[in-house]
């Protein structure tokens, strides 16, 4: 099956965020096991303070300590831009340990890339993904300043 014909995420499945453009991205907490009947991602972005566990799909790791901001903001911008671009054809998963703070912040940045005004991106993600997403004031400020 080629990339263009792979099934997309089910937009009604837990953790799946539909961006205004129609791109679908799944946010997840790594502490929770994968649903054995859900399709696997084709590309994963893992936001952790230390090396993530190995996965059988293509993935990238961004050093991002819990309750903080990415260690390298330039790398974060490039990686999130790549994730947003790939979400047009791939099943992209964005995950941290709990699936709320770092994952929510990254999803809000993807929403900004997708055209949501930065001042509205946290509300968009809280409405369409998880009402507790983006946990700290500095994560909210990071989204507002994301380019």
Unreliable residue runs: none
Total of DSSP H or I helical runs spanning 4+ residues: 4
List how many beta strands DSSP finds: 5
Strand content: 15-25%
Main sheet specs: 5 strands, mixed
What global shape is seen?
A: globular
Helix content: 25-40%
The helix-strand sequence is: EEEEHEHHH
Average pLDDT works out at 94
The value of Rg in angstroms is 14 Å
The N- to C-terminal Cα distance equals: 35 Å
Strand order of the largest sheet: 1-2-5-3-4
- Structural class of the helices, strands and pairings? alpha/beta
Considering the chains and any ligands shown, give keywords for the structure.
147 residues; alpha/beta; 5-stranded mixed β-sheet; 5 strands; 31% helix; globular
Detailed description of the structure:
α1 packs across α2 (101-113), α2 (101-113) packs across α3 and α2 packs parallel to α4. Strands 1-2-5-3-4 form a 5-stranded mixed beta sheet, covered by helices on one side. By secondary structure, the protein is of the alpha/beta class. β1 (16-18) and β2 (24-29) form a beta hairpin. The chain contains 4 helices and 5 strands, in the order ββββαβααα. The relative contact order is 0.19. The mean pLDDT is 94. The N and C termini lie far apart (35 Å). The protein is globular, with a radius of gyration of 14 Å.
